[in-house]
Amino acid sequence: MRANRKATAAKGGGRRADGGRAVRNEAVERPAHRGGREDGAPRVRVRMYRPGLGDCFLLTFQPDTADEAHVLVDIGTVGRGDGVPMKEVVRDLAEVTGGRLAAVVATHEHADHLSGFPALADAGVTAGEAWVAWTEDPTDPLARALQRYRGDLFTAAAQAASALDAAPRDGLLGVLQAGVRDLMAFNGFLPDERGASLGAAAKGGGLKKTIDAMMRSALGLARRGPRYLSPGDVLEPAWAPGVRVYVLGPPRDEAAIRQLGSHGSPDLYELAAVLGVELPGAPGGPAAGGPVQPFDAALGVPLERAGALGGVAAAYEAEPWRRIDEATLGAAAELALQLDNATNNTSLVLAIEAGDEVLLFPGDAQLGSWLSWPEVTFAVDEHGRRRTVTGEDLLRRVTFYKVGHHASHNATSRPGLELMSGRNLTAFIPLDEGVARRREWPMPARTLFAALREKTRGRVLKSDKDAEQAALALAGVSVERLHVETTLPLEAPAAARERATPRARAHA
Questions:
Q1: pLDDT at position 38, please?
Q2: Which member of 80, 177, 291, 406 has the lowest number of beta carbons within 10 Å of its beta carbon?
């Protein structure tokens, strides 16, 4: 793969909303004893909130000092389960940060990462800047193509969902309906709408509009237009001395994100195209809300007119297994999966270097993105000398890993995890396993969870009710009702033991 943006990386990279190239914050003097550590190494507190099945991470640089700065990486949920209400998470965030974030990060357009931003905006929380992936840049040609593709998938999934809603809610179709509804929660069909019709919610682009509004709320927290970040960009924010933020993904490679069809192409409806299905509302297809047709209309006879064919209708009524008029509704599940995967691989991926610590926040990036990271290169200044940093080097030094997509099987690559060799490697999984189990989602994937436990030597925690017990054995990790947190570098053993005692402090 080609080197990524070496020339611009040293200057901070990223593109502002006004179209100009963003430059890094001006160099600042870096005090030797900032943050209370004698060696001057920056400290960072990682707080994983517990809103159920969703991501919400607050990073605090130089915590408990007059110079502390806060960065929020996502805030959302698609199911509370045993988690805390989002309004309590928002209240705590506003209190801890004083309503002021140095930066807000919105990794990608899924509700489990974005649904809390409107409430955060309503609470009056603001941010100095907003960081999003280049795939959100409306002036970028490839980003526009990806957005059109996702828009087509939203339209196709809505059409299929409408047809599915009209089908009987029993047997295998009932199971399929429930599965598609659950999966579309990531795309704006929120838990409090579960009694509603998915087809009605998706009508007129409703789900896409819901997701777009969440993203606008995230970007609206910032005083200035967003930074659109690309692989190879590196930021050195003045509000976090000694900290570098490296951008690993998403890759600027269509094949790595996913194989794209052209706008309006039947290739977008992969399963439907293979089976010859015309989805309601598609060009040349039946009207929206009408039945899904497995063959061209010229090749079929409606059942009510089939009596003239000498008992054909009676045979189909007597032996329902012969009928295929609902068989193609499985396209709805395939389309929902396509939409989910097409979005996950547009995740903004950040490796945050704080002294000897490297924190990896991959959003929900999947395999195509993961495989591109080792070859990304960055040019940085070290005491007036130019130095090249590679993505592989950063992965080898990871000491904190935010596990992607709630530890599903397809959002952590085996080669990537095997590279992680940082001291006291710790992994946090934003997951309420009860919510996943009720929806029959295999989270955490058993083989991945076992690999994480082995790689971290047991330093892996989910955000659900299992966190309290797991934290008892882990130095430097504390659990409260609202959140799980750790501070890097790890504190001295005595302090770490005190912090590792779970507390159940109720927030007012």
A1: 46
A2: 291
CB 137 within 8 A of CB 143: yes
d(CA 465, CA 82): 7
pLDDT tens, residue by residue, 106-136: 999 999 999 999 999 999 999 999 999 999 9
The whole-angstrom distance between residue 318's C-alpha and the CA centroid of its chain comes to: 48
Residue 291, phi-psi category: left (phi > 0), alpha (psi -120 to 50), beta (remainder): beta
Give me the pLDDT at residue 82, please: 84
Contact between 120 and 217 (Cβ < 8 Å): yes
Q: How many CA atoms lie within 13 A of 41 on its CB side?
A: 14
Which of 357, 370, 362, 393 lies closest to 476, judged by CA?
357
The string of pLDDT tens digits covering residues 386-396 is 999 999 999 99
Q: How far apart are CA 507 and CA 85, in angstroms?
A: 12
The candidate with the shortest Cα–Cα distance to 156, out of 78, 208, 213, is 208
Cα 233 vs. chain centroid, distance in angstroms? 20
- Give the Cα separation of 265 and 262 in Å (integer): 5
Q: Residue for token digits 């045993």?
A: 82
Residue with tokens 């996502």, as numbered in its chain: 74
Tell me the C-alpha distance between 431 and 317, whole Å: 47
Structure tokens at 50: 């517990």
Residue 488 bridge partners (DSSP) = 44
Place of tokens 């924190």: 359
Q: Hey, which residues does 400 pair with through a beta bridge? A: 359, 426
Average pLDDT over all residues of the chain:
78
Q: Give long-range contacts, CB 8 A cutoff, 24+ apart: 250-253.
A: 250/133, 250/134, 250/135, 250/345, 250/346, 250/347, 250/348, 250/349, 250/365, 250/369, 251/368, 251/369, 251/372, 252/4, 252/134, 252/142, 253/1, 253/368, 253/372
Cα dihedral sign, 204-74-135-181:
negative
Which three-class secondary structure state does DSSP give residue 282?
coil
Cα-flanking dihedrals φ and ψ of residue 40, to 5°? 75, 0
CB 234 within 8 A of CB 378: yes
**Helix H or strand E segment including 144:** helix 141-165
User: What's the CA gap between 139 and 152, in Å, rounded?
Assistant: 19
Handedness of CA 477, 478, 484, 488 (dihedral sign): negative
pTM of the shown model? 0.79
The closest of 72, 75, 21 to 45, measured between CA atoms, is: 72
